[in-house]
Amino acid sequence: MSTSENDQIYYSAESSRADGSLRGLTRVSASDEDPSESSREGEQINAAASLHFIMDLWTSRAWGTTTRLVLMLVSWCVNINAETCHRPLVSSLSPSSFRSSSQLSSSHGPGFAKLNRREGAGGWSPLNSDKYQWLEVDLGGRTHITSVATQGRYGSSDWQTAYQLMFSDTGHNWRQYRWEGHIGAFPGNSNADTVVQHNLQHPVVARFVRVVPLHWNPSGRIGLRLEAYGCPYNSDTVSFDGDSSLIFSLRPRQTSTNTIRLTFKTTRNSGFLLDAEGQNELGLTLELQDGQLLLILRKGKSSRQHLVSLGGLLDDQHWHRVAVEQHSSHFNLTVDKNTERVEIPPWFTHWDYDQMTVGADQNLDSQNSNRNFHGCVENLLYDGQNLIDLAKQRDQSVTVMGNVTFSCSEPVFIAVTFTGPQSFLRLRGDAGLHSAGTSLGLQFRTWDTEGLLLTFDLPKRDGTVWLHLRDAKVHLQIHKAGRALVELKAGSGLNDGQWHSVDLKSRQHLTVTVDGTEVASASPTYPIAPGGQLFYGGCPDEGSGHSCRNPSGAFKGCMRLLMVEDELVDLIKVQQRLLGDYSDLQIDMCGIMDRCSPSYCEHGGSCTQSWSTFHCNCSSTGYGGATCHSSIYERSCEAYKHRGNTSGYYYIDADGSGPIKPQLLFCNMTEDKTWTVVQHNNTELTKIQPSTEGSQHLTHFEYAVDEEQLMATINQSEYCEQELAYHCRKSRLLNLPEGGPISWWVGGPGAGQRQTYWGGALPGSQQCTCSLQENCVDPKRHCNCDADRTTWANDSGLLTHKESLPVRSLVLRDVRRPGSESSYQVGPLRCYGDKSIWNAAFFAKETSYLHFPTFHGELSADVSLLFKTTSSSGVLLENLGIRDFIRLELSSSTEVVFSFDIGNGPLEVRMKAGVPLNDNRWHRIQAERNVREASLRLDELPAAVQEAPAEGHIHLQLNSQLFVGGTASRQKGFRGCIRSLQLNGVTLDLEERTKVTPGVQAGCPGHCSTYGGLCQNQGRCLEGARSFSCDCSSSAFTGAFCDQEQLEVRYRLESSKEEEILRSKVRSLANGQLHSVSVSRLADSVTIQVDQHSKEHFNLTSGVEFSDIRSLTLGRVHNSQDLDPALAQLGSLGFAGCLSAVLFNSISPLKAALLRPISSSVVVRGPLIRSSCGPAAANPHAAENTHHQPDQSGSAGGGQPLVNALRSDSALIGGLIAVMIFGIASALAILIRFLYRRKGTCQNQELTKTEENRLQFASQSISKYGPTESQKEYFI
């Protein structure tokens, strides 16, 4: 019967959106057979609601309106396939096709439950209105079901307001309708006549449909009229009994991919499903193991490689879809909705299969036949060819082995689901009939480690038996008055979701058997038999009058095959209330869910589960949170610095919650700039050894981090450099006389590109640094080494073009000629400046905003940003969908709110600060939403957390543009600064977007108000355009935050080289105690010893001669015009404290100053006071060993005072500068925080030895060339 237009009044639900702008959306459910889960099923929009929606859109920003209108028009478009599969399925059925749990009267029977019919009482109503009622329809065969519509009972106040859908192929083993992995409840009716229809975007295939009312009109009863829409479903099916199989001979196919598709159902959790074999004994196997599907590659009969496992609980006797796509380099394995990509190993290179076997492995003997497949296979396709149809047609390419039937014959198991703490099943125990003993059995499956399986009282209630799970083992406990406790244990790991059997027998002995093999036994002296009732899963409420106690908690899981005295319990009679009693049970179905398949644990976190939820173990992953989504490490060395950290090794996660793993890198924070240092396998100066093999030298560099981390470090840094040096003697570098490159290096992303320029030159120039500086040894050449001279030369410099970094390999070709010698050095990669951490925008008005593409964070979404403002409120970020949204806002001067809606209604997480947030200081917000929970963290406060609903939608579906600093929902925008905005590990370039957005400015100065406290020990915070720094010039300390206390010795023996800093590991020198320091050098070997600590050895990398010394200074350096700038800056601080027993080689400068303070060779500025600094430690001398000419006279003896060592002709002391200062944290100052409070207190003192004419120390350089500029040495 057709439906009249007047009767088709469609329900229009009001949205609960907080902004009120989106209405008229009736959410319809998603099929549990949806392979993508990318969108929730069918949201139906009627015309009135759509008009309201459009009017609201015009009130939003103009640019967003067009986008939303397009999306709405798309939602109006009905899928063509759905139109061709949308015929009424129920209206033409006979009354015998309807069944129900009960009926109020014969006129309220299920046969009257047809949509828009008025026969009988106008629909179905059950005898009692409770949660155990249901209406069932037999469609006569397996059918595509695409839509369901409901009405209340005609002319009454009886209707349901919410219901569940269930499906079955056999009328048993029902499957609950689920969306997004959760049980779905459909909105019902609001009156008796309105038709509410829900489209299933992806069809369900089933023969039986069952509607279970959940809620109904409180002023009436349950009342229902029903229609389902769809079309017939055709398939080719075959059954296997464990001994049967089909063998297909396949023809080679010239295709780029091979695809195998099938659908199967089984009650066994393990078994051989399919094997495809090709040439060279290569094969592919699909095999069930513990309810998962394994993809295995094999070579021959014994060599097997397990590639991947997918799915879970595949033995649930429901249909599961499988697809194997074989591409040139990888497989895609799909099981139901989940797909895994796995790489193909190199040895598996044959793509065409000659033979395919389904159902049984013919290589197994009869004793191992239980490893074969028991169940049904449907629609087996190989590259689109229907193989089952070939078998049905008895094609010659098909061999049938054993008993194969082309239908699906399956056993019927009636299961019962215990859903919660109120669930129990009560049966009679036949008291007194089996006083000599008992026999009880059951099968169960669960994810919980504890729960009551069965309990009963002994006869006359003088004892109790408990059979329960504890620690995932079966425990049997018998308590009997006056007798010792009997306790048995059997099995282990029984919370794995698999079916396990338990048998309790008490005849001559008491035994507990688990899975037929694990047996525990005892011999009590009294009979064990039920004295009354049997309770399964739990106990009734205490007020029920039953003597049932449960010491272990309720069981949550499934049971089946309940045996009492070797007789199977009829659970259908239990469902009909004809046998026993129950509460909160789902009968004729097992509602267990595998919440770890697919796993929502990210970044390698391991998933475990209970009946109602799952947990992620994030240990050793580098990530945290409920799903291991957010990184626990910072994204850069710059970020670590601004959290107050100092130099050292840190784990860097360059993309936060993205896929790149954290890597251990060295962060150098000793300078104003924070350097990230990436080492490789050869950073030392390497001499090319002579060889007769080949005409070139090739070397590769392997870096200490993964490729993704390496490139991310380069890309997000402001500047990167890598030193490249070549030392040569008769070994040309780049250019032959006839042109063309001799040598090159390879650098850049991936495999890299060939580069023909050298360090310090421009890319593509085929030049070295000397060519740019116009100082090559041969002006006609572009590199020093290209002069091809017999004397040593070098070309070195820094590579600074990030597009060419890092250096991956080096090819040197002119290294085999007679007389040629060469060496090379490629330094570590060094980068500074995090482009993301200082990327900021200033929103001058509340109407200002930036917009970006739609944020995609369906299952996990994290937002991280810093803000500062003087306003009390404003929306920081917002993205809308048709109904879903996500928003982050400053709701008041002390509160931040993170809110979103994924279809379950708005959820808010609030975080209140103890101080005002509109203080114009930077505050950090970290918000995360995943399938388990939502969290919000503000600055260093503990995170606020909101649990997600146990059932409901889990996908966040957005479709408009992302607003930053503003809103599309007419709420107040943000006025202030937003910096370092990152969504799911991706940094949004705020500054770039401001270039095309009026009203928003790039950058946001004023960092010292927040970070100035990091500058310690009188260090001063200096503002930078994109950062800040600490000025330590007025502090005796040094380092990024003026907090480092360290003894440093600095050398520079060649003016063309950077100074070398030798740092002692000894700490705590500024403690007011006297310390002895010894520094000695022999050539390039330097030894430092502090007090009684172990000697520390260092090697200098440039220069070995220290000669032509002009002066020696203790304390502050006043006249620094002739000093190196770096040395002058260090020497300007001065020293506060005591110096004692100073010895430079044989010179005692401090003693000279004290004995002859008015000598012309000594200059004293400020008070110099004798003092007893305390007892001298062992080895109190700091000596610099120099070479002496054997014929030179007048050299000073060891320990001789300086005044006696100086001669009137000024011939003994002369040369360049030598400065010796003991410093704390490289600042030339020690103990500035400690002034001695004792009788002989030392005051600030400065001592300088000089001579108007150039004095010469008794020691001179042995260099035959005499002193040169390159032989300067600063000894600090």
TrEMBL record:
Residues 85-231 form the F5/8 type C domain. It is found in: Membrane. Residues 235-408, 414-590, 839-1004 form the Laminin G domain. Pfam families: F5_F8_type_C, Laminin_G_2. Residues 1-43, 1175-1200 are annotated as: Disordered. Residues 592-629, 1005-1043 form the EGF-like domain. Residues 1-15 have a biased composition (Polar residues). Residues 628-680 form the Fibrinogen C-terminal domain. Keywords: Disulfide bond, EGF-like domain, Membrane, Repeat, Signal, Transmembrane, Transmembrane helix. The chain crosses the membrane at residues 1211-1236. Gene3D superfamilies: 2.60.120.1000, 2.60.120.200, Galactose-binding domain-like, Laminin. This is Contactin associated protein like 3.
